[in-house]
TrEMBL record:
SMART domains: Endonuclease_NS, NUC. It comes from Gluconobacter albidus. Belongs to the DNA/RNA non-specific endonuclease family. Transmembrane segments: none annotated. One of its GO terms (molecular function) is metal ion binding. This is Endonuclease. Residues 1-21 form the signal peptide.
Length: 291
């Protein structure tokens, strides 16, 4: 049985013998071996780091979900994942205490999809794929985002990693502090205002981020990691120099997913330039709250 150790500051709960090997492998998932940094005390309170085979995730007692997931996405991993049939079922992460767990009941009848942070399509074998379906790796997403633009973001990143050979990827939710969060389920899971995916290309070298509104009419933007950090109070790549995070690389455009192509009308298209009034309002609200 594979073993996993859980950490949160000084908290270290060994779930089974031999967890040291699993722990030692976790830094390889982070750029420079350093995990993403939470920049506010509120965020840091009640968090637990979980190391899985293909990704690491920071779970939060406050949101009963992930604050970020991180992976080292390689060309070899993607090639193997393509040959692995996607399968898996969502389930609560029993490694977490009950006070930190989301459950299937939280999503049932909520109107929201169970949206992966680290996608199962990145995982090269059945075990790592099954780990990606744990609810510690899941947030509430609108179906329009989850099956449309977000699937396009995931596909674009896989294509980029396939071309470059390796990318460090950090994914997370962003919450609008100017407004009371909508919640779902008996555990009151907050619905994020945005979903983001930050990329570090060591071969570039350079960084960039995709940010998408989590709405029925999702709009996505390519932006710098520095701006993303100000928006969500999380630095995805604290080991990298600030200058490398100030401007976005020339990143691949968001690909259309089969769902988006099937459901879009003749006059509607995925917007990638963040020009709508709703998108600008959400962006400015987040910036004002963090100033």
């Amino acid at each position: 049985m594979r073993t996993i150790r859980i950490f949160s500051g000084v908290l270290a709960l060994t779930m089974a013998a031999g967890a040291q090997a699993q722990t030692a492998s976790c830094p390889r998932l982070f750029a420079g071996g350093v995990p993403p940094a939470l920049l506010s005390d509120i965020q840091r309170s009640g968090t637990v780091l979980l190391c899985n085979d293909g990704y690491a995730v920071l779970a939060s007692e406050r949101t009963k979900g992930p604050l970020w997931s991180a992976e080292d996405l390689t060309e070899e991993q993607i090639e193997t994942a393509r040959q692995t049939q996607r399968q898996g079922h969502f389930e609560a992460d029993e490694r977490l205490p009950a006070s930190m767990q989301a459950t299937l009941y939280d999503f049932r009848g909520s109107g929201y999809d169970r949206g992966h942070l680290t996608p199962s399509g990145d995982e090269p074998d059945l075990q790592s794929q099954a780990q990606s379906f744990l609810l510690s790796n899941v947030i509430p997403q609108t179906s329009e985002l989850n099956r449309g633009a977000w699937e396009g973001v995931e596909s674009a990143v896989r294509g980029w990693a396939d071309q470059e050979g390796e990318l460090f990827v950090v994914t997370g939710p962003g919450y609008d502090p100017d407004h009371t969060q909508e919640t779902i389920g008996p555990d009151l899971l907050p619905v994020p205002a945005v979903t983001w995916k930050a990329i570090y290309d060591p071969a570039g070298p350079g960084t960039g981020a995709y940010v998408c509104l989590n709405t029925a009419h999702p709009v996505c933007k390519i932006t710098s990691v520095a701006l993303l950090t100000r928006l969500v109070n999380i630095d995805p790549f604290p080991a990298l120099p600030a200058a490398l995070k100030e401007r976005a690389l020339s990143m691949p455009p968001i690909r259309q997913s089969p769902y988006a192509l099937e459901h879009r009308s003749g006059t509607t298209k995925l917007e990638q330039d963040w020009k709508t009034v709703a998108a600008q309002k959400a962006l400015h609200s987040l910036l004002r709250a963090l100033e």
